[in-house]
Design a protein that fits this description.
alpha+beta, single chain, 9 helices, globular
Amino acid sequence: MSEKHFSYSDASLRDLAGKVLDLARTAGGTAAEVEVSEGFGQSINVRKGEVETIEFNKDKGVGVTVYLGQRRGHASTSDFSVDALSRTVDKALAIARFTAEDDCAGLADADLLARDFPSLDLHYPWDLSVEAATEMARVCESTALAVDGRITNSEGAGVSIQESQFVYANSLGFMGGYPGSRHSLSCAVIAEDDSGMQRDYWYTTAREAGDLASAESVGQRAGERAVRRLNARKLETRQCPVLFEAPIATGLIASFVSAVSGGHLYRKSSFLLDSLGTQVFPSFMQIEERPFIVKGLASAPFDSEGVATRDRDVVKDGVVEGYFLSTYSARKLGMKSTGNAGGNHNLIVPSTGESFDELLRKMGTGLLVTELLGHGLNMVTGDYSRGVAGFWVENGVIAYPVEEITVAGNLKDMFMGIQAIGTDTEVRGSRRVGSILIDNMTVAGN
């Protein structure tokens, strides 16, 4: 694959990382770690058929952390010259000298560092000219505008190309890195009639351009989603089942991840403290972490500290089997890093077998949520309250759109109240899950 967008070879980045570690050792650091990276981006946005913005970005950086015993200092630079690297190391050391000792500070445990580096096919350059990207965005937008005469305006369509590469190294002898890519196409339009205006959007994202949905399909989906929201009504306050559409359901899994992540756990600011080995979900619920999926958007052979990732069951039969820990948070908890410094890796939530239409029928009468508004999660208590928009469902069939309502509950009850998970799996991020049906929540309206 072509690497013409990069200014440095992998060997050059490795050489720079080695130089920084040498400088840190010579300057008196007892341990050090460094990340050297560069990135390239191109984005084109079109609105009403006209080019609105063309953006290019090209950046690079070195971040170095130096330890003096258990005192830590960090500094960074975008200058790759030896003088600049030396000054950056000196700054990190100066910070470390004036930092209090922390008995949990330090590099990752040597026995946890990655030794195998499987090829995960994460880098696919996209040599797309500005002219071709512009035409793709125009096709996407024009398709959306042609869906229905009530689509009267557009927020535009955009094509984005992103590529990056990095090398991470530390004074324990670890050095590893790889290039990656993430490309996307999106569109947002506005529908209008006597009832008012409604906006909606759609997008596609993938490592390889060939895996993106077509411009026509993205535009079609954006247009259909905008039109179907016209004539939205309010609801009276009630208790009812709630179905979270797949792109929204990923947020429920994200809330679980946050609650069982090291930072919240050691600070005792999570509603799932000491949840390891306890039943948090129904017994049919599984959450698997799979870091080695080829082309996966969250695939990685090691985390941001060099700790090896591994396949594991985070939740098995509804029981929490593992946390998400970095080296520091693990030491604060008296545990070992789980290889999650920097986040989770491809969480898979298997479906219970129902299609989206079957989930609607299973719910019977209730609320389908397709958009969340605002922030309303208390991580300490688990209390959940979000403004939403979506559709009222009667007898398993979508009846009409709804807006200006709030759904509320507690995540502990919501997790245990999951009734089914759809086959309409969302694959555009680090958490793969279908629509989630919850047995009962408070819907606040008029």
